[in-house]
Design goal:
Rossmann fold; 2 domains
Length: 371
C-alpha cells in the first residue's frame, strides 16, 4: 500500500512524533511505501509552554518526511492537500490528541474525503486533560471526514461512543497502546537488582500530579531512607510549585530533578536505573509512559484513573492507588520494597512482552485490512 501519515516528525520532538515514526518504520518493513507529511512548525512560540520544540536526539528513525503544514497557518492547508493528492496514497493516518489541530486536520480531511482517499485517526483523547472551548464540536469536525478510527483504551472508546454516537462503532478498532522497543539497546530481561531509585518520567503538566508525589516523598523517605527520586522531563508551566515543595520538605538530597527534554538515546538508562516508575496522574486515558516503562520491564505505581487499569494490573505488574492521595503512594512504595515485588512484577511484564501482549501487530493488521 501507499500510506501517508499526517502529523509531526523529527526534528519536531515529542511522544506523538515518536509514535508516528515507529509505526511508519514498521509499515515500511512490511513492504509499504510510507511518507510522513509533517509540520513545518507545530505550535506558535506564544502558547508553547516548554523551552523549545526541536528534538536534538542523535538516535532517530530515518524516514521519508515532507514538512508541509503549519497547523495554525491556514495558508499551508492547501499546499498540504496538494502534496498528499499528488502522491495518491491509499490511506492517510493521523493522530488526534488535542483540539488545537482540529481546524487544520478537519479542513484537510474534508478535501481528502472528497477525493476518495481513506483516512484513519488514532485517538489519544476524547476527554482532554486541559479545558478547550468547543472541544466536542472541533473533534466532531475532524471525525466527520474520518473513514476509520483506532482507540487504545476502553476509556477512549467509550468516550467516543458517548459523545459521537453517529460514528459507526464498526469503524472503530480497539487496540492496546503498543510498546516502545525503539529506545531499547540492551536485551529485554526482568529486573534482578535494586537501584533504590524511583522514577517520574515525561512532560510535567498539572494533570500528571507530580506535586502529589512530592507530598508523598517525606513519608516514603521516613519508611525507606535509602530511596531517591529521579524526575526526568521538562516542566510545562511554572516550576516553582515543585521547587517550593522540595524546599519545604527538605527533599533536595533525595531528588534528582532534570527539568529538560530527554533525548532518545538517554531514555533507556533512566528506566534501567530505576526500580519503579511512579505515575500519580489526576486524569488519564491511556499512558505512553506506562508502555515505555514496560518496554524495559520496569513496573509502574499509578493512580487508578482513566484507562490506566487496563494496562496496569494491581499486584500483578504494578500497583494502582487512589488519585491525589499522597499517603496511598507512600503505602504502595513501601509495600513494593518491603515485599520485594520488583521481581514478581518485572517478570510478569517480561512474560507479557514475550507473549506480544503490547505488540504493534494489531495496528499493522488493521491497516492492511483497509486495502
Amino acid at each position: 500500500m501507499k500510506i501517508a501519515f499526517l502529523g509531526p516528525a523529527y526534528p519536531i520532538r515529542g511522544g506523538i512524533a515518536q509514535f508516528i515514526a515507529i509505526f511508519a518504520e514498521l509499515l515500511e518493513k512490511q513492504g509499504h511505501d510510507v511518507t510522513i507529511y509533517s509540520f513545518i512548525k507545530q505550535y506558535p512560540k506564544l502558547i508553547f509552554p516548554g523551552q523549545e520544540q526541536i528534538d536534538k536526539s542523535e538516535k532517530v528513525i530515518d524516514l521519508k518526511v515532507k514538512p508541509v503544514l503549519t497547523p495554525y497557518n491556514p495558508f499551508t492547508y492547501n499546499q498540504t492537500i496538494k502534496a498528499i493528492l499528488k502522491d495518491k496514497p491509499d490511506l492517510v493516518i493521523f493522530k488526534y490528541w488535542i483540539p488545537f489541530f482540529a481546524p487544520a486536520f478537519g479542513f484537510i480531511l474534508k478535501r481528502l474525503k472528497k477525493a476518495g482517499i481513506k483516512t484513519l485517526c488514532i485517538f489519544d483523547n476524547i476527554e482532554f486533560h486541559e479545558k478547550w472551548m468547543f472541544a466536542d464540536k472541533l473533534t466532531g469536525y475532524v471525525l466527520k471526514s474520518t473513514s476509520e478510527a483506532i482507540t487504545m483504551s476502553e476509556s477512549v472508546f467509550n468516550s467516543l461512543q458517548e459523545k459521537f454516537p453517529w460514528f459507526d462503532s464498526a469503524r472503530v478498532h480497539k487496540h492496546k497502546h503498543p510498546n516502545y522497543d525503539f529506545y531499547r539497546e540492551n536485551e529485554l530481561k526482568p529486573k534482578s537488582e535494586l537501584t533504590n531509585r524511583l522514577l517520574f518520567f515525561g512532560y510535567i503538566k498539572t494533570y500528571k500530579g507530580l506535586d502529589t508525589l512530592l507530598q508523598a516523598m517525606p513519608g516514603i523517605i521516613k519508611a525507606n531512607p535509602y530511596l531517591k527520586l529521579t524526575i526526568a522531563g521538562e516542566v510545562y508551566g511554572d516550576i516553582e510549585q515543585y521547587t517550593k515543595l522540595i524546599e519545604e520538605h527538605n527533599l533536595g538530597e533525595y531528588i534528582d530533578f532534570q527539568n529538560r527534554f530527554i533525548a532518545n538515546e538517554e531514555v533507556e538508562s533512566f528506566f534501567l536505573n530505576s526500580d519503579v516508575c511512579v505515575l500519580p496522574y489526576r486524569s488519564a486515558t491511556q499512558s505512553g509512559i506506562t508502555q515505555l516503562a514496560f518496554s524495559f520491564c520496569t513496573p509502574v505505581i499509578a493512580t487508578d484513573v482513566g484507562g490506566l487499569s487496563e494496562t496496569i494490573k494491581d499486584n500483578y505488574n504494578g500497583y494502582l492507588v487512589e488519585p491525589e492521595n499522597p499517603q496511598a503512594i507512600v503505602e504502595a512504595v513501601s509495600k513494593y520494597y518491603k515485599e520485594e515485588k520488583y521481581r514478581q512484577f518485572s517478570e510478569a511484564i517480561y512474560s507479557q512482552q514475550q507473549n506480544d501482549e503490547f505488540s504493534w501487530g494489531p495496528f499493522i493488521n488493521t491497516i492492511e485490512s483497509l486495502k
